[in-house]
Design goal:
Oligomer: heterodimer
Number of domains of chain B: 2
CATH topology of chain A: MetI-like fold
Shape of chain B: globular
Largest sheet of chain B: 10 strands, mixed
CATH architecture of chain A: Orthogonal Bundle
Structural class of chain A: mainly alpha
CATH class of chain A: Mainly Alpha
CATH class of the largest domain in chain B: Alpha Beta
Largest sheet of chain A: none
Strand content of chain A: under 5%
Structural class of chain B: alpha/beta
Distance between the termini of chain A: 47 Å
CATH superfamily of chain A: MetI-like
Helix content of chain B: 40-55%
CATH topology of the largest domain in chain B: D-Maltodextrin-Binding Protein, domain 2
Order of helices and strands of chain B: HEHEHEHEHEEHHEHEHEEHHHHHH
Radius of gyration of chain A: 22 Å
Number of strands of chain A: 0
Order of helices and strands of chain A: HHHHHHHHHHHHHH
Number of domains of chain A: 1
Number of strands of chain B: 10
């Protein structure tokens, strides 16, 4: 093994350029002010009123969209586990298909659909039903998040359900458990790893997104991602932007650690 | 939209380069000039004709906001020879010694420059030493009369009118949004006074309930599509919007407005100054200025170009605001760091409500 160390070189270079250098720059900018002096103000700024408000709002929207993704994806996984179509992977393929298109384009498409005088509006007029205008509201942002990130929830849940040992479920029935009890006591606990990775893969990008809230929120929905983005593009304050990103990174790492901890202990009881 | 155009442009440029090198002409270049400009801000054909004529290769990079340009020029991430940015950014770069004086002697077409545009800039650069205007225009209200009952908008105050609830598109830009609120209150758009700025913030907060969307680039398309009745827009976008939707009208509010000029400037560390001058002079040629006008529909302050325009274009009060209107307009000044922080803080409070 030792003599194959050369193969690791591309990855080492990638880690240095793609992770270490940016991370060091963020730490450097975060710990300095615009004159280059040391400061911790950029980190403490997270606790100012607007930032905390944006953070709480982001967490809220991310939780809602994660929850919606979960209740959409889990039943689907259960259905697909049994069905022929599901086993062949065809339905999963259909769900993952939109991911072949660029994420920005898909979000932009929602803008065209939901916009006043847009596609949905015209369709509703055609059918003579009232059009509910959700563009530029938090609902549109949640819709965008669910649409964009749902495949990330479906895939891990489907995978863990598909590979579950059928014998365990039969054993549960043999021992007199009903359908519901089997789901609650056997299937659900066994699928926790898939649920956990699904939750992380939806929650983290939802929490930090600024593109979806920009495009579907009409500039009225200010998430923590938008604030960080604006520090770079509008205020030209890289120091504050870096400081806030760093705090976000810490928060995400902490929540990941908690998630994995729950997973290991198997303490998650979702019902 | 701009990004899409940019991608198409990049592809076109790559193809163009391949074509050129395919013909074995690449080695003919006598040198390169590095230009940093707003995305899609002049007719791309001019690059090819310039290269053909002078054998100087144009290396063009683009950006979206002035604030993106600033750290790049400041830290010399790339050594650009020629940049194009807004008036207040020119002012900031000038004060930090990052720009070189423009030697007008080297620009044979500088004589076509419209004095009016130069005069507007003298607030920030007394002798117009450091910049050469590229485009200019005003901010105002674009509106769709077919969607409005009652009197048409004519002042900034109308953007606070409850009858336009959910029908207003505001700019998603810090300085311009504060400009609207400050001008409405009768203050300078360069106000540094904390009370005036707090007033502007409170008014913008009040206005938020009426706003349909905060947007910059998409305002034009939303107005064309009839998504909102009125919006804050820059005059350069109006001609194009009217071509697509004849109903649309534009007005410079009676309180006055912001007059902006986007300018070329030469960096203090430029390596190929002579080439930069050549390119600049090429852009100032009346027929090329006219090409840019046709391409961008933004007003270009070039008296030679005025001769080339047709009757309708020459009489457009969108391209040529009256002296009376210009008199009420102000130019954005660069603010000191402390004031800048207040603006960003207040803007965050507005956006975060």
């Amino acid at each position: 093994m030792y003599k194959h160390r050369g193969f690791a070189l591309p990855f080492i270079i990638m880690i240095i350029i793609g992770t270490l250098v940016p991370l060091c720059s963020i730490v450097f900018y975060g710990f300095t002010d615009d004159t280059g002096n040391f400061t911790i103000e950029n980190f403490l700024a997270m606790f100012s009123e607007e930032h905390i408000k944006a953070l709480i709002f982001s967490v809220l929207l991310a939780l809602i969209s994660t929850f919606i993704c979960l209740i959409l994806a889990y039943p689907l996984g259960l259905i697909l586990r049994k069905s022929k179509l599901g086993k062949s992977g065809f339905v999963i393929f259909i769900f993952v298909l939109p991911m072949w298109m660029n994420f920005l384009l898909r979000t932009m498409a929602w803008q065209v659909i939901l916009e006043r005088n847009g596609l949905l509006d015209h369709f509703c007029q055609f059918l003579n039903i009232p059009f509910v205008e959700i563009i530029n509201t938090p609902f549109a942002v949640v819709l965008g998040m669910v649409y964009d990130f749902l495949p990330f929830m479906i895939l891990p849940i489907y995978n863990v359900l598909k590979s579950m040992d059928e014998g365990l479920i039969e054993a549960s029935y043999d021992l007199g458990a009903g359908k519901f009890t089997t789901l609650r006591k056997v299937i659900l606990p066994l699928s926790v790893p898939g649920i956990i990775s699904g939750i992380t893969m939806v929650f983290v990008p939802s929490l930090t997104t600024f593109v979806i809230s920009n495009m579907l929120g009409g500039g009225k929905i200010n998430l923590i991602g938008n604030i960080i983005e604006q520090e770079f593009t509008v205020s030209a304050n890289w120091n504050l932007g870096s400081g806030l990103s760093f705090v976000m990174m810490i928060l995400i790492v902490v929540s990941m650690v908690i998630f994995t901890k729950l997973d290991e202990d198997g303490e998650v009881n979702l019902l | 939209m701009k990004k899409m155009v940019l991608i198409v442009l990049l592809v076109m440029m790559t193809v163009g380069l391949l074509f050129v090198s395919g013909c074995g002409r690449a080695s003919d270049y006598i040198g390169q000039v590095h230009i940093y400009c707003f995305g899609d801000y002049f007719d791309p054909d001019l690059i090819y004709s310039f290269e053909d004529e002078t054998r100087i290769q144009v290396v063009l990079d683009t950006f979206d906001t002035n604030e993106e340009l600033y750290p790049v020029v400041k830290n010399r991430t790339v050594d650009y020879d020629l940049i194009c940015c807004s008036d207040y950014m020119v002012c900031k770069l000038m004060k930090e010694g990052l720009l070189d004086k423009v030697d007008k002697e080297k620009l044979s077409n500088y004589k076509y420059m419209d004095e009016k545009a130069l005069k507007m800039l003298q607030n920030i650069d007394k002798n117009n030493d450091y910049e050469v205007p590229h485009t200019w225009g005003t901010y105002g209200i674009i509106y769709n009369p077919t969607m409005i009952d009652g009197p048409m908008p004519k002042s900034w105050d109308d953007l606070w009118d409850a009858r336009f609830k959910n029908q207003i598109i505001m700019t998603d830009s810090l300085r311009e949004s504060f400009m609207v609120a400050l001008m409405r209150g009768g203050y300078s758009l360069n106000s540094k006074d904390l009370d005036e700025l707090s007033y502007a913030r409170d008014e913008l907060l009040k206005q938020k309930e009426l706003v349909y969307k905060y947007s910059n680039d998409s305002t034009r398309d939303l107005m064309i599509g009839g998504a909102a009745a009125l919006g804050v827009i820059t005059s350069g976008e109006v001609l194009y919007a009217q071509e697509c939707n004849e109903d649309l009208e534009y007005v410079i509010p009676e309180e006055g407005s912001e007059l902006w000029t986007d300018c070329w400037a030469i960096t203090s560390y430029a390596k190929e100054k002579d080439y930069a001058y050549k390119f600049l002079d090429y852009m100032l040629r009346p027929e090329n200025a006219y090409k840019n006008f046709e391409y961008l529909t933004y007003a270009i302050p070039n008296t030679g170009m005025y001769e080339l325009m047709d009757e309708e274009e020459r009489n457009s009060d969108i391209v040529f605001p009256s002296d009376k209107q210009l008199k009420k307009c102000q130019v954005l000044e660069n603010l000191d760091n402390k004031t800048n922080k207040i603006y960003s803080q207040f803007w965050k409070e507005v956006k975060g409500k």
